[in-house]
Amino acid sequence: MKRLIGTLFPHSLKLRLMAAAAIWALPVLALAGILLLWAFRVHLEGQLDDELAAYQRELLAAASIDDRGALALDYIPADPRFSRVFSGWYWQAAIDGKVVRQSTSAGPMETGALTLLSQAVGITELVGPGGRDLRVARRDVTLPGGQHPVTILVAAPCDELEGDVAQFATHIVAVFATLGLVFMIAIYLQVGFGLRPLALLRREIAAIRNGRAEHLSPDFPDEIEPVVTEVNALIDHNRHLIDRARNEAGNLAHALKNPLSVLSHEIAGLDGDRRLVLAAQLSSITDQVERILKRIRAAGPSASGHARADLTEIADDLGFSLRTIYRDRQLDLRFEIDSGAAFAGDRGDLIEILGNLCDNACKWARARVVVTATRRDGRLAVAIEDDGPGIAPGAREAVLARGQRLDERVPGSGLGLDIVREIVTLYRGTLALGDSKLGGLRVELDLPAA
Fold it and tell me: Between 347-364 and 311-325, two packed helices, what is the crossing angle to 10 degrees?
């Protein structure tokens, strides 16, 4: 049964719990309905038997043996059903197996329409006139002055009882179907309430991923608390590993700096094609090392904990650096940042993203670069635009590829956009290239906001 439920609902814990509850609850409801219907039927049969016994007592009270030894009835039951021919309600009085009196409903006595009733013993069911099932009560009594016992038989149609049972069954089905529906709704609400801590757990994990929290809170039910403890331990472990990796990256960069400088100096002293070949290979090594080190230094949301980077502060520092680097070109570099706009992530990662993109824009811009940042719906929308030559739509994917450069005249390794894209992906953001209103390239970023 567990395997069946898992097969039917492999991706929904709520549906699994509801199905498990329905598997035992709905059969219980069905069994309760069947038992209730059976009890009602027994009750109706008991009532009918009591009614038949009452008519028997009434007939016996009116019966006597006259001087000739014949059966005399001072009166007969006044129930009109005994007067309607073949109504299904009959009574008979017999002496020594011979019917001597019977109800009008039985029709002419000489027809022998109710001869089968004499086969009844106690209370039983027989087929009567017209093929109708009858419930028959028989009682044998010896009256004063009589030589033979008098048999009193009273019969009632079973179809009336069956009709009442069928009508009750219809009501039972309607009531229990409604009860089952209400029960399933109650189970749905109960399961939803019981699983609410999992929804809270998901939100808190999302908050950690987006940099709004460092750990899961301890306010969870006892059943979930071990999971919370393990997740917090995993977060601390991952943070330790990433911090260690970033430290190792810094150590590696420091360790490689001097050997690469020596190699570069020695290669510069060579002559001819050998110098060009070695210089190209050294440049490739340097670019690859730089790229790998930048990737390692990218913290990502899981390593930052409760990280928050203010865009205004970073824009001020970045603007000062870029204006200093490109002071000879006198670029119009503007930052239009919404008040309070902040990035939910590592400050160094944001500097790496904006630094690369703004530096590319300044390299290609003719005279103007505009950086805008707005917050909407919990996300941060950043756009970097320039008035340079732009990039043709068909070449934009190639620009984002690792180490690709469209113009070798502009200095750089071509790794900037690739690094930016990888860091943005770490934060589950997006990077898109488009046309700027200034006439050049527009780079759009979608990042988590703090």
Answer: 40
